[in-house]
Each structure stands twice: as structure tokens, then as C-alpha cells.
Design a protein that fits this description.
- The strands form 5 sheets. The chain has a 6-stranded mixed β-sheet, with helices on both faces. The protein has a 4-stranded antiparallel β-sheet with strand order 4-5-3-6, with helices on both faces. It has a 4-stranded parallel β-sheet with strand order 8-7-9-10.
- About 45% of the residues lie in helices and about 20% in strands.
- Mean pLDDT is about 85; it is low at about 225-250 and about 320-335.
- The chain has helices spanning about 10-35, 45-65, 75-90, 90-110, 120-135, 145-160, 165-180, 185-190, 195-215, 225-230, 265-275, 300-310, 350-355, 370-380, 395-410, 420-430, 440-450, 490-505, 520-535, and strands at about 10, 115, 255-260, 280-285, 290-295, 310-320, 335-345, 360-365, 385-390, 415, 455-460, 465, 470, 475-480, 485-490, 510-515, 540-545, 550-555.
- It has about 550 residues and is of the alpha+beta class.
């Protein structure tokens, strides 16, 4: 579908750019994966860039959805884009792209409440992006995405006029020329007959920027050089031998990535410590939230360094497996189990509970829902022929459906149970029996989830209309099956009212999941209420951790 050109860089342009960039990376993903030979030939750069932009685009969409009337400011949109990319960044190139977007946001958000910016703002944003990304990499290497980003900024700076379309096109042309020159700067690329994969992805993202402002699709860029094309090297991914004597030779065995809540001074010390532990170190972010990426032999030490610096979470440790640049000898593939459960959980406490029950979990922190790529990764990590997927959130139904389709395309049998709350997931997991036929197990789990009414008690963040009337910021809300049913001032009183309304329709078991900020005595009070007023109803209490809601309630 043809895009309506955006004359200025405003919030709508940010939204359009993210959508077009995601489409462009989606089309180029497999090709970029196939030319991925540096710094590690693990064939995932295209996928990592796609997942990073997917997270950025989802964050921007969430900002637009939050505005009932009007639209967000440019600052709102670019901050959301940068934050989404930061928390969803994958791999070396995805982490650098997140910093590029953050660098742009630092300039564009500085406009404050201004509705848009022109070519001057875009020039400065591209320059700041390239410089900040280079600073985030411990040991910058030419012939990589950093070189392509710098060339884009240089070309944009040399362009004349204030038209955003002309500036974007100049940046794209500069990046494309720099990309073509990358094989002459990195021996690994020249031997493989390919351009840099991360740089190829950035050119796709800049091409989407051109289309955003002009409505015209940018030229397609080839990933293989003429030499490789003539040699017929496009039959498959570049082999690990392509960088055997490059920086990856005898390199670290693990890729470690995590988000980190920490102060600037602690992060400076962390950089030094991780730099001594391994290579490919990239630390991006700021304002107390960072994304850390490093290749190391001692993954535990890399995580421990994060614990000393602050609070690491969403920790991902990947072993460079057979067939990549860090492999030494053959490994026997782990045999797949027959069936597994993959569940999204809202807090660390529930992650532990689900994990003890045998589920593979994806942690969804407040305001940071997982992208479909994270769910697909979890399905793969479960390493099963059959997977039951529990999204545990009504807002994740489309994301989970997309993940299920992707997993099915990879040959995994996936059943999606539309659980709307973690308490419904608990009920489903309680009746899960891997030894049953798959269809029978899914029906039983679906029935248990559907028979569980769910509620939550939370604090209103702003004044709004609800099905129970107008609430003010700071009011305590009781939601039953997703709708606000009670508005009050006292958490325990609201929780008791919600519980009474739910049990009025009957029930045999009450599940209470307490968040970290729930009042201390609330569980004891509610348990006592159930014992005194509802005979033959049992109560079970779990600690959910930082789950967003003060309290989750399930009645089955």
C-alpha cells in the first residue's frame, strides 16, 4: 500500500517509519541472516534486527493507543521508539541499532512539546545517533554497522535544504555506498563475498525513512558482493570458516545479554569488568536503564558483574553451537521432549512457580509486554515437538497468535490457550498431563482456564472513565474479568468487595497472587474472610513479585 509522504518529522512519521522499517527487515531478514559472518557467524543478525524494531514499533503503537483524543507529541513517540528498542534489543547489531534510535531520540525529544522538526533536526539526530552508537561499543571496528551509520550522518550533514525527504535520501545513499565498501575493510567479509550484515540492516531501516518522507520505496540493496554472486555462494549461509582467523578466532563460547537497572557510575565500572572478561561488548541506554551485550567464556561471571552493578533481568545466555565461529568439535543435539508448556508471567515469583511446574516462562514486566519473537524463542527453548502456549494476558492474544504461527512454520505443533490472566494459567497448568493425547490435554487445560474467573486490584495512574464510574489518579480499582467493578480508597476493602462479588456466583478454590506492593496483612484478611463466609472453599496464596497489579485473584 502506498504511503502518504510526511513533510516533517512528527509523531505520525515516527509511527510510519517504524512500521515500514519492520516490513523492510521482514523482507530482508533471511538474506541478512545468511550473510552474517561478523563478529560471529551465527546467522541471526536479520532476525535480531527485526525483533528489535518490532519492539520499538509496538512501543510507539502503545503510545498512540493511549491517546483517546489527538495524537502524541514527537517527543512522546521518539522516546517510546527508543525505549521499545532498548528493552527488545537482540544481539550485537540489534543492541547497536537501539543506541542509534536512542541517539536520535535525544535530539528529537529535546524539542519538547513541538509538534514536528525539519531537516535541520533530522541532520543533527542522525549525527548524534552515529556518534552515540560508536561510543557505546567498547572497541569500534570499521567495516561494520558503525561505519555505515557514520557515513549516513556525514551524507546527511552535507545535504542542503530543510526538506526531511532530501535529508533522508542523502543519508540512505551515503549508507548504501559505505555498505558496498565494507568488504574492503573487513577480511572476514571479503573472504565470504558479502557486505556487513548489520550495515545491510541499517540501510533497510534508512530506506524505510526515505519512504516515510517521500512515499517512494528505496532501491533494494544486495547483501552478496559481485564476487560471491558469480561464485554461486548464495546457496546457503556463509560458513563459520569465513571468519576463522578474524576477531572471532578461538573466541568466547557464550553470548550474554541482559537489561540492567543501574546508575551511570556503576555502569562505567561494569564496562571495564566486562571488557576484561570477553569481547563484542556493547552497553547502551541511560537514565537508569541499560542493555548489556557481551561475548564471554564465563557467562556466570558476566551476570554476576551485572548483579554487582545493579539489577539485571531478562537475562539471555546463548551458547555458540555447532557450525558457528566459536564451535570446537561436534555436539550431540539434545533430543526433543514430546510436550512442553510455555507461559508469559507478570512477575518473578510466578516465574518461579510456573518453572517448578515444568513450564518455560517469559517474564513480562509492567509496561514491557514481550514481542512475538520472545515467545517464539521461548517455544524453541522448550525444545518440544508439541507446545501449549499460555499468554496470560488478553492484550497479548495477537502477539501470541503470531508466535504460534511462526513456530508451526518451523514444524512445532502449537496450541494457543487464550488465558487472560496468570491465575487462569495456574489453573490450566494444574491439570496439565503430558502423558495424555495432545488434543485431550489442550481441551482439559482450556476448560480449567475457562472455568476460572479472574480479577485484579490495582491503583489508577490517571483520571479516566470506567464501567464503574469516574476514577481519579491514586484510586484503588477492582477489575473483574477485565472490567472495572469497584472503585475505592482502601486496597483491602476493595479486594474484599471484589472477592465477595466473585464468590457470589460460587466457587471451590480461591487463588491469591500478591504483588510486592500489596499491604502485608491482606492475604491473612482475605483468607479469614473466605473461611468465615464461604464454607468448603479453599484458598491458596502465592507471591508474585513485581507483577504490576497489587493483587491477582482467581476463583474456580
Amino acid at each position: 500500500m502506498a504511503q502518504v509522504p510526511q513533510t516533517f518529522f512528527d509523531a505520525l512519521a515516527v509511527r510510519t517509519w517504524c512500521g515500514l522499517a519492520l516490513e523492510s527487515l521482514g523482507r530482508a531478514r533471511e538474506e541478512i541472516d545468511a550473510i552474517n559472518v561478523y563478529p560471529v557467524a551465527d546467522g541471526d543478525t536479520g532476525t535480531n534486527l527485526y525483533l528489535t524494531v518490532e519492539s520499538a514499533a509496538a512501543a510507539v503503537e502503545a503510545v498512540f493507543t493511549a491517546y483517546d483524543v489527538g495524537k502524541p507529541t514527537l517527543a512522546d513517540a521518539v522516546r517510546a521508539m527508543a525505549h521499545g528498542a532498548l528493552i527488545g534489543a537482540r544481539g550485537n547489531s540489534g543492541t547497536i541499532l537501539a543506541q542509534l534510535l536512542r541517539g536520535m531520540a535525544q535530539v528529537l525529544a529535546a524539542e519538547g512539546e513541538t509538534a514536528h522538526t525539519d531537516g535541520t533536526g533530522l541532520r543533527l539526530a542522525l549525527r548524534t545517533a552515529a556518534d552515540s552508537a560508536r561510543q557505546a561499543v567498547a572497541h569500534p571496528v570499521e567495516g561494520t554497522v558503525l561505519t555505515v551509520a557514520s557515513a549516513a550522518a556525514d551524507a546527511a550533514g552535507a545535504a542542503t535544504g530543510e526538506d526531511c525527504g532530501a535529508i533522508a535520501r542523502a543519508a540512505f545513499d551515503g549508507a548504501r555506498a559505505a555498505l558496498a565498501a565494507t568488504p574492503g575493510q573487513l577480511a572476514a567479509l571479503e573472504r565470504a563475498g558479502v557486505v556487513d550484515a548489520g550495515g545491510r540492516g541499517l540501510v533497510a531501516v534508512l530506506g524505510a525513512l526515505v519512504e516515510t518522507f517521500t512515499g517512494e520505496a528505496a532501491p533494494v540493496v544486495a547483501g552478496a558482493t559481485a564476487t560471491r554472486a558469480r561464485a554461486g555462494a548464495g546457496d546457503g549461509p556463509a560458513g563459520a570458516e569465513d571468519c576463522a582467523d578474524g576477531p572471532g578466532e578461538g573466541g568466547p563460547a557464550f553470548e550474554v545479554i541482559y537489561l540492567l537497572e543501574a546508575e551511570d557510575a556503576a555502569v562505567a565500572r561494569l564496562r571495564d569488568r566486562l571488557d576484561a572478561l570477553g569481547d563484542s561488548l556493547v552497553v547502551v541506554g541511560g537514565d537508569g536503564l541499560w542493555n548489556v551485550h557481551v561475548h564471554v567464556d564465563d557467562a556466570g561471571a558476566a551476570v554476576e558483574a551485572g548483579v554487582e552493578a545493579g539489577r539485571p533481568y531478562r537475562i539471555r545466555i546463548t551458547h555458540f553451537g555447532a557450525g558457528d565461529a566459536h564451535s570446537t568439535g561436534e555436539r550431540t543435539p539434545r533430543e526433543r521432549v514430546q510436550r512442553a508448556v510455555v507461559a508469559v508471567v507478570p512477575g518473578e515469583g510466578l516465574a518461579g512457580l510456573y518453572g517448578e511446574a515444568g513450564a518455560t516462562t517469559v517474564l513480562a514486566r509492567p509496561g514491557e509486554p514481550p514481542a512475538s519473537g520472545e515467545l517464539v524463542d521461548a517455544v524453541r527453548r522448550a525444545h518440544a515437538r508439541e507446545v501449549v502456549l499460555l499468554p496470560n494476558d488478553a492484550d497479548l492474544r495477537h502477539t501470541a497468535a503470531a508466535a504460534a504461527e511462526q513456530a508451526r512454520a518451523e514444524g512445532i505443533r502449537v496450541a494457543l490457550i487464550p488465558t487472560r490472566s496468570a491465575v487462569q494459567g495456574i489453573a490450566a497448568l494444574a491439570v496439565h498431563e503430558p502423558e495424555r493425547r495432545f488434543d485431550e490435554d489442550v481441551v482439559s487445560m482450556t476448560s480449567a482456564a475457562g472455568a476460572t474467573r479472574h480479577a485484579e486490584v490495582a491503583v489508577a495512574e490517571h483520571r479516566s472513565w470506567t464501567s464503574a464510574g469516574i476514577c481519579q489518579a491514586g484510586d484503588v480499582l477492582g477489575l473483574i474479568d477485565g472490567d472495572v467493578a469497584v472503585i475505592g480508597a482502601d486496597v483491602t476493602a476493595v479486594a474484599e468487595t471484589v472477592l465477595d462479588r466473585m464468590l457470589a456466583a460460587g466457587g471451590e478454590l480461591v487463588t491469591l497472587v500478591l504483588g510486592d506492593d500489596a499491604p502485608g496483612p491482606i492475604a491473612e484478611h482475605l483468607e479469614s474472610r473466605v473461611r468465615e463466609a464461604y464454607l468448603a472453599v479453599d484458598t491458596v496464596v502465592y507471591r508474585g513479585g513485581r507483577q504490576g497489579a497489587l493483587l491477582l485473584i482467581g476463583v474456580e
